[in-house]
Design goal:
It is a single chain. By secondary structure, this protein is an alpha/beta fold. It has 2 domains: about 120 residues, Rossmann fold (3-Layer(aba) Sandwich), CATH 3.40.50.720; about 160 residues, Dihydrodipicolinate Reductase, domain 2 (2-Layer Sandwich), CATH 3.30.360.10. About 35% of the residues lie in helices and about 25% in strands. An 8-stranded mixed β-sheet has the order 8-9-10-7-11-12-13-14, with helices on one face. Strands 3-2-1-4-5-6 form a 6-stranded parallel β-sheet, with helices on both faces. Helix 4 packs parallel to helix 5, helix 5 runs antiparallel to helix 9 and helix 7 crosses helix 9. The longest helix is centred in the middle third of the chain and has 17 residues. The protein is globular, with a radius of gyration of 19 Å.
Amino acid sequence: MVNKLRWGVVATGGIADVVTGDLRLLPDVDVLAVSSRALPKAEEFAAKHGIARPYGDYRDLLADPDVDVVYVATPHVQHHEVTRAALEAGKHVLCEKPATLTPAALRDVVDLARERGLFLMEAIWTRFNPLIVELGELVRAGVIGEVRSVRADFGFPLPHDPAHRLWNRELGGGSLFDLGIYPVSFAHLLLGEPDVVHAHGSLVGGVDAEIGVLLGYEGGAHALVGSSLRSPLKDGAVVYGTEGLVELPEALYNPSRMIVNGVERRHEQEGAGYVPQLREVVRRVRAGETESPSMTLDESLAIMRTLTRAAEQVGVDYAGVEAG
C-alpha cells in the first residue's frame, strides 16, 4: 500500500458527491477513481473533485489495480452486486446503508469479506458522530442510570412519484430501509437487538409510506421508532434512563447538539459530517483490520434482522428485487 489510501467511488449521485467532498479533506486519502453507468457523468464528477480516473462501468474501476478501497453509493438494489464484485476483486469496501435489502444478501457479503480477509463496513455515519459517541460513553458510565426507553423518528413528506427511488419498490424504496434505519440503529446502539418487534404502517405501491415500530426487550425496556414519507416527523430522539434523560433535539443522523440532564453539549462538524466515519475506515484498513468495532458486521446483520422483521409485518417484500 502506498502512502495514501487510494479510493474508488462507485456512482455519482448526491450522496457520492457529498461523501467524496469529505474524503478529499483527509490528508492520507487519494480519491483516485470514479465510475458511472454513463462515462460523461463520471468525467464531470471527476473534474469537479479532481479525480484522475473516470470509468463508464464499475467493473472497470474494480479492475484498476491501484484502487485500495471502494465506496459503494449506488441505489440500494445494487449494493449487494457491487459490494460482492468489489470483494471478489480484492478491494476493501465501505457500502452505503442499507448494505443490502435482505438478510441473506448481507450474510453473503459478510461471509465473503471474512473469507478474503478484507475490510467491509456499512456506512451508518451516525455511529461516528462525536455526540453519538459521547452519548454511548455517558450511558455506559451510568450518567442517566439504566436506559429504559428510547424514542426516535425520521421522516418528511415526499409527494408520491412512482419513478422516485423512495417510492419505487424495484429500487428498494420505502421509508424504513432509507430513513428508519437511523432510529433503528440508534435503538440497537443503546439497547441491542430486540426480543420483540411490532410494526404498523401503510403501503403505497409495495413500499412503506410510513411505519411505527415497537422494539421490546426482556425486562420491559423498549424503543418506539418511526419513519415516514408522508409526515414531517420530529427528526430527533430522547433516551430515558432511571436517573435522567438525554435529548437530541435535531436530526438524529448527524446531530450537532444534545441535552444531558438539562445541560446542553455541542460539537463542531467536520466537513459535511462524514469525516469521522471515513477516518475510521482509513484507520482500520491501515491497521490491517477487517471490521470497525464501532460498526461491526454482526451489528449490521442484527439491524438488518430487525428491519426485515418490521418490514414483513407491514407487507414490504424485496424478494427478486436485489441485484447480484
